[in-house]
Amino acid sequence: MNLSIVIPLLNEEASLEELFSRINHVCQSNDLTYEIWFVDDGSTDLSWNIIENLKVQYPQIRAIKFSRNYGKSQALHAAFERANGEVVITMDADLQDFPEEIPELYQMIVEDNYDIVSGWKKKRFDNVMTKNVPSKLFNAAARKVSGVYLHDFNCGLKAYKKQVVKSIDVYGDMHRYIPVLAANAGFRRITEKEVQHQARPYGSSKFGTERFIRGFLDLVTLWFVSRFGGRPMHFFGAVGTLMFIVGFLSALWLGISKLIDVSKGIYGHLITNNPWFYIALTMMIMGTLLFVAGFLGEMIIRTNREHKNYNIDEII
After folding, report:
1. One Pfam family from the UniProt entry (predicted)?
2. Residues 40 and 170 placed together within one structural domain of the fold
C-alpha cells in the first residue's frame, strides 16, 4: 500500500464528505493505493455517523473513535500504531490543507528519500494578531531551541516514511514537534515544502491562543528530554553533587572557623547564628534530593512505560 492518510478531527461534520471526495479523487488520479485513518477525538456532532456512512461505501476508510477528547497527539499516536502505508501523511480535517498536495509529498518521500516533509504555510489566511504573529514567534523559538530549521512546526500537513512514525512516541502535546522527535531518533533527512492554505470554510478553530503557551512549555520539555531524557543522572546527579559539595565545603569552612576561634579563646558566637550555616545546610539537602531524583529517573527509564493514555470506544 502506497499511502496511509491520518486525519484527526473534532466536530468537523460539515467538511468530512468533501475532504474524503477530494482525497479519493487525487489518489485515484495518481494511481496511489491508500487507506484513510479518521480519528474522532471525542466529537459531539455527527462526525462519527458520517464516517460510518462513508465506510459502507469505501472500504479504504479506517476509523477510530475516542470515548472523549484526548488531544491531537493521542489521535496521531493511535493511528500511527495501525498505519500500513509505505508513506504516512497527516492532515487536518478542516479543509485548510489541500489534498491536492498529496502526490508531491509522496514523491518527495519515495523518490527524494526524505524521512519527513513538513508543510510550510508561507501565505496564511488566519487572524494576524491571534495566530500569524504568535506563530512566527513560536516557530523562531522552536528553531533556535530544537536545532531543526523548519518555518512552520504547526502545519498539520506532513509526510513521513512509515518507519519514522513507527519509531517515535507521540504523547502529551508533542504533535507539533514530531520532526524534532524524529531527529532525536536519528531521522535527519527532514525538509519542508511550501503548501497552499485557505481560510476555514466551515466551523471554527478548536485551538485558542493558549496553545502557544502550552507549545513553549512543551518546547522546554522537549529540549530537556532530548538532551537528558536518556540519562537524567547526568543532569540531576551533576547539579545535585555540585550543590552538595558547595554546601559541604561551606559547612566545613564554618566548622574550621569555629575551631580557629576557640583555639584563640574566642567563645562568643555559635555556628547556628551564622546565616551561612542554613544556606550550607539547605544546599546539602537540595543536592541530596536532586541526586536521588536523578537516580530514580535512571530507574524509571529502564522500565517499560506505556504512553497510551486514551480509551477507544470503537474501531472500524
Report:
1. Glycos_transf_2
2. yes
The answer to whether the beta carbons of residues 61 and 54 sit under 8 Å apart is yes
- Average pLDDT value for the chain: 86
- Measured CA distances, 147 to 4, 13, 190 (Å): 28, 38, 12
Per-residue pLDDT at 94 exceeds 70? yes
Structural domain including 148 reads 3-228
Per-residue model confidence (pLDDT) at position 126:
58
In a domain, 252, yes or no: yes
Q: Lowest-confidence range among 73-82, 214-223, 251-260?
A: 214-223
Single-letter amino acid, residue 251:
A
Are 162 and 269 found together in one domain?
no
| Half-sphere exposure (Cβ direction) of 57: Cα atoms closer than 13 Å | 8
List, in order, residues 6 or more apart from 303 with CB less than 8 Å away: none
d(CA 207, CA 205): 5
C-alpha cell at 89: 501523511
Q: Are 108 and 194 found together in one domain?
A: yes
Q: What are phi and psi of 9, to 5 degrees?
A: -150, 155
Question: What is the C-alpha separation between 186 and 167, in angstroms, rounded?
Answer: 10
Cα–Cα distances in angstroms (integers) from residue 290 to residues 19, 105, 232, 238, 280, in the given order = 51, 46, 10, 9, 15
**Pair (104, 69) in one structural domain:** yes
Task: Tally the domains of the chain.
Answer: 2
